[in-house]
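Box 3.1. Reading complex inputs
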Amino acid sequence: MSKIVIYPGTFDPITFGHLDVIQRAADLFDKVVVAVLENAAKTPLFTMDERVDLIKKAVENFSNVEVDIFHGLLIDYAKSKNAIAIIRGLRAISDFEYEFQMALMNRKISEGITTVFLMPHEKYTYLNSTIVRELARLQADVSDFVPKFVVDKLTNKFKKA
Amino acid sequence: MSKIVIYPGTFDPITFGHLDVIQRAADLFDKVVVAVLENAAKTPLFTMDERVDLIKKAVENFSNVEVDIFHGLLIDYAKSKNAIAIIRGLRAISDFEYEFQMALMNRKISEGITTVFLMPHEKYTYLNSTIVRELARLQADVSDFVPKFVVDKLTNKFKKA
Amino acid sequence: MSKIVIYPGTFDPITFGHLDVIQRAADLFDKVVVAVLENAAKTPLFTMDERVDLIKKAVENFSNVEVDIFHGLLIDYAKSKNAIAIIRGLRAISDFEYEFQMALMNRKISEGITTVFLMPHEKYTYLNSTIVRELARLQADVSDFVPKFVVDKLTNKFKKA
Amino acid sequence: MSKIVIYPGTFDPITFGHLDVIQRAADLFDKVVVAVLENAAKTPLFTMDERVDLIKKAVENFSNVEVDIFHGLLIDYAKSKNAIAIIRGLRAISDFEYEFQMALMNRKISEGITTVFLMPHEKYTYLNSTIVRELARLQADVSDFVPKFVVDKLTNKFKKA
Amino acid sequence: MSKIVIYPGTFDPITFGHLDVIQRAADLFDKVVVAVLENAAKTPLFTMDERVDLIKKAVENFSNVEVDIFHGLLIDYAKSKNAIAIIRGLRAISDFEYEFQMALMNRKISEGITTVFLMPHEKYTYLNSTIVRELARLQADVSDFVPKFVVDKLTNKFKKA
Amino acid sequence: MSKIVIYPGTFDPITFGHLDVIQRAADLFDKVVVAVLENAAKTPLFTMDERVDLIKKAVENFSNVEVDIFHGLLIDYAKSKNAIAIIRGLRAISDFEYEFQMALMNRKISEGITTVFLMPHEKYTYLNSTIVRELARLQADVSDFVPKFVVDKLTNKFKKA
């Protein structure tokens, strides 16, 4: 039976840290579904369509990675995809706390799914999308943190703004 | 002299984690005042009246627990109640930081009051009201986390919404 | 019914941090038993008799504190004393981890006993017996950390050595 | 290609926390090698033969788990087994630090292997072999923490001692 | 060559914790520039002019401290000032995480600048501007946390409100 | 007045992480004294003479770094050198705790000296001498972690052993 895993997130925008985790997951499992969260509560910088497009471009060389949208309960979504695990990137302590909380809550609701924590390369330890957006807003060079076509999109966003 | 303690919080809504702490405090001290915070800055899901009602129902079998409302400075409120201590539930690291900060600040202002940290059962380690509200909003079953009559209230809230 | 609590430790030697916790516990409960651990695995600097004597001298002004020796399982000892809780001083993160671990293990074995965490004054946040011994060994002045008669005992120990 | 993973440790003795991690790993991957560390520096309570026997008994119902001994560098051993990942159980913060350190050091030496962190059930969050040995030495009941045949072995050890 | 350092922040308002860090930095380096952040995203309690005035009053006895305003990227600002380092006060774990993240991001963008962490006195370990504002709003006495002229300004703010 | 700082440690052996901290300190201050600790309690892998020689070789290109030996109380030693600060490398959380403890204890004894925390490059975040010794003992290649002449010394040590 094919081993399918879900890598959920907001990806606003996708970073090299996310890609490092996707690469590792794609090596370990048969299929990785990058599941972009539709979150009514927060206004993202990039629209859902833009975020999905940027991820698709970033993963186009992986044969076993697909990109999808989800809303509602992660655990229900994971079941609908026949996933055996949820992938989370672990960076630092603050992450760790939150991720544990989420993983345990998911488990309470559905014992049949496991959370797998993967550690991105240490050069991405302190990288996240919020910082990338903040740096881009201040016109800093973010090409060490996101792919070239994301840099361009960010530059555009903050030109218009 | 009767040993009175205060257990302050927002309780939006009360969870099994809170109840576990209340149970322990009720065993250790003569009287426990569950003090619900009137917080102008945040809009709670449940009104003050609803929150107080849910707590009253949840603690109706405890003979030495009462429910009250407070606003203003916790330390002044505690003194007005002749309390000897403030009870806090300790869950995980992030809690720990914040609780320490609050406890020390309270102490600076009033040396005569101590903060007592109680640890809820480990099955509630990662439980909090925010997560319960989020799960209920997504129509997840939260009956492992809150009493039956709170489940019903949450179901109602998110039906109307 | 009288509320008895146990404050266990090695107390090698007792510090102002320990005394701060004892003071708080004595205010909150009817009786505090300071229980000195007989630990076959470690060689303490002070003998059991010396440690007990130093604690007795340090707590002689408290009417509801007694000093005792224990070996074996803390939870069995606590029951034999009709204690309703175990007191632990919480200092910093590393403590927190270890104390949680111990508290949960104790609870697994005996649901009927609770661990109560008290926070010493922030000026004692980073104080422990190991550091006091190390500083005394290096002839540093430790009179900010331990009572005068403990300073004298330490000076003696490291003169003889 | 078959996905093989290594779960290394001292297992002195194996606990329900370890078994929970093994169960999860066995669901996620094609083969799990439980690799018992021959560590010259520490004297374990159980001999290597005893530890291997206890693990074998504990995993006898898993068709895709095998038990092996290793010494030397974990990364070399993993390669010799054609493993694609090393499995580590994540419990609490202190673990997290150490595990990160080890995972990064392994990666420096061999980029081709990933560390996968799995979280045992929260009821095992604070469980480890050291605590089990300590509790057994003090004649506490450890049957909530280790399988029945490990309880018996521990009872024997501490009768003889 | 003169050693110039930057101490950036929002200072809404300046506290004794900040002043303790400024004092230490002024002893270690030739010049300290306290750089107040113009942050479009947050509405501070005090205007930029008020914050700068309060800092200037607080540091008027230091001969090698100046106060300045900055917006944009911290690293660009530091370079324009010929600074060799950025000063950060380290308080507790949550700080530590965030500060590491910021320091590493700054380094990625400009290898030539170092972040220097100074630890304020332990009595300020849990002090920050947010707590001071909250306490002042509730009419608590904050004279242990901020200079007298800041107390007065806070009292004024919350009288008008 | 010349700004002198002390960088104390065991340096058993010196690593690239230490050198990264020394480099930063040498840029910030007029003179850096690398002070090697004579510790009667632990048996180091390298003798004091060997450790001093390796550090001297490693810092020979810095004009303002000197190497020295100390025993006794760090704070007394720092004063005897007219140092204005003690330098510590901050790596991860566990470090942080210990370093805070030490820094506060030093401050209690001598208010006139400050601890300055510098963060090594993130690629050295999880590097320490213990891990280097352990890897070398297992014949792993440690040339990413220590200078070439330290690699050779380590290879020799573990050949003889």
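In summary: Residues 93-97 of chain A have pLDDT under 50 and may be disordered.
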